[in-house]
Write a structure and sequence with these properties.
Blueprint (H helix, E strand, L loop, with lengths): L25 E4 L12 E4 L19 E5 L5 E4 L1 H17 L5 H8 L2 E3 L5 E3 L7 E7 L4 H17 L4 E7 L3 H10 L6 E3 L1 H10 L6 E2 L1 E5 L5 E6 L4 H11 L2
Parallel strand pairs: 7-8, 8-9
Antiparallel strand pairs: 1-2, 3-4, 3-10, 5-6, 7-11, 11-12
Length: 243
């Protein structure tokens, strides 16, 4: 059996998952089957948490932040203090970082991806608009949960020059099957491994999904959001980005 971990990406069957680096949490396990393909995901308790509710997620400091690791297919539960720290770091980064300008966002606009049907997704056409870029995956429950909200906000804000694009850190077949059940009105690009690298270049220091960026019409990154987005926070950030 082969697994993936946040510290080690196992290349062959016969390796065990490395322990989660967080004191408390759950990790998602993906094992190779006899053909070498990734088998269905299962969850494993690696801390002292007594329950795991995949139906509800929260980004507020009164609850917990959950996200899935791009490197290791890991889902973690981050406790109250760490959640608040992440929120604070994110706000500080958005306000203070010198790495938010057009030279950074150009990495997004110049990226080459295809959709689920193999057609090119021309991200360069989005220059001059306010763009919400969401890195996600079909195996990431928080990602899946926020997509209907993203779709609704995309429709509501289209008249203000706001566009959304999703970049799936996944395989085309998985994304295609998912979109048949959960269609969205904004374009979805299939990123695979290159999307991991792109998200890192754009500031995803946690190598995690969901990871969402807002790039304004001047091609400046105004927000980096780690974990699930609430509609209230997203619309507040969009209001600032479109001023």
């Amino acid at each position: 059996m082969s697994g993936w971990s946040s510290r080690n990406m196992m290349a062959r069957c016969g390796n065990a998952l490395a322990p989660n680096s967080f004191a408390h949490g759950w990790r998602l396990k993906r094992f190779c089957d006899t053909t070498g393909q990734l088998a269905p995901i299962s969850t494993e308790n690696v801390g002292k948490m007594s329950a795991f509710q995949s139906e509800s997620f929260s980004m507020t400091c009164s609850s917990t932040l959950r996200f899935c690791s791009l490197r290791g297919w890991i889902m973690v539960l981050v406790t109250l203090g760490v959640t608040c720290l992440l929120n604070a770091c994110s706000k500080f980064e958005n306000a203070q970082s010198a790495h938010n300008g057009p030279q950074v966002s150009a990495k997004f606009f110049d990226a080459q991806f295809k959709d689920v049907n193999g057609k090119n997704v021309d991200l360069s056409t989005l220059r001059g608009k306010t763009v919400v870029v969401n890195f996600w995956s079909t195996w990431c429950p928080p990602c899946v949960e926020e997509m209907p909200m993203f779709d609704d906000v995309h429709r509501q804000w289209a008249s203000k020059g706001v566009v959304f694009v999703g970049i799936a850190a996944d395989q085309a077949d998985n994304v295609k099957s998912f979109l048949k059940k959960t269609p969205v009105s904004y374009p979805i690009a299939v990123g695979g491994q290159p999307s991991f690298d792109l998200s890192r270049e754009l500031g995803n220091r946690y190598d995690a999904v969901p990871f969402t960026l807002i790039i304004n019409a001047q091609q400046v990154i105004t927000n980096r959001h780690f974990g699930i987005y609430t509609r209230k926070d997203l619309e507040l950030d969009l209001a600032k980005a479109t001023k």
